[in-house]
Amino acid sequence: MSFNILTVDDSNTTRALIKRAMQVADLPVTEIYEAANGALALEQLKAHEVHLILVDLHMPEMNGIELAHAVLKDPSTKGIPVAIISAEPSAKRIAELRQAGVKGYLKKPFTPESIKNLVKPFMESQHVATGN
User: Fold this and answer.
1) Burial track 79-95 (b if 16+ CB lie within 10 A, e otherwise)
2) Which of 46, 84, 90, 44 is nearest to 66 (CA)?
3) Under 8 Å between Cβ of 68 and 45
4) What is the arrangement of strands in the sheet containing 52-55, beginning at the earlier edge strand?
5) Are 30 and 2 in contact (CB under 8 A)?
6) DSSP code of residue 37
7) pTM attached to this predicted model
8) Which residue, of 33, 52, 77, 124, has the greatest Cβ tally within 10 A?
9) The CATH number fitting domain 4-130, selected from 3.40.50.2300, 3.40.50.720, 3.40.50.300, 3.40.720.10
């Protein structure tokens, strides 16, 4: 089964670290698409089939919260799980995001193992949902 991920972070380094962590964790990801902010992420979603979106909260132009709301509100993307990877320490913010429909949260800095623990359940649920 093919599994495509969109990473959204304004830091090129962080996006590269996420990609490398997925490789080290040996996750069977087909494509990893990237965007530097939420507006560019929406363009990527129009151009590619994505099964999971990993989003930073603090970005210019369109931040992670705005992106999550846009994805979850749009009928064509609302079925794509959104997970946050951020240094945001606020438990209140995390609770608000979960209530809004965000499916996961990982605190920076992360390890390959923590990336695997975040991503693998989404891959497994996608596998079950498609019957592949």
Assistant:
1) ebbbbbbbebeeeeebe
2) 84
3) no
4) 31-35, 4-8, 52-55, 82-86, 104-107
5) yes
6) S
7) 0.91
8) 52
9) 3.40.50.2300
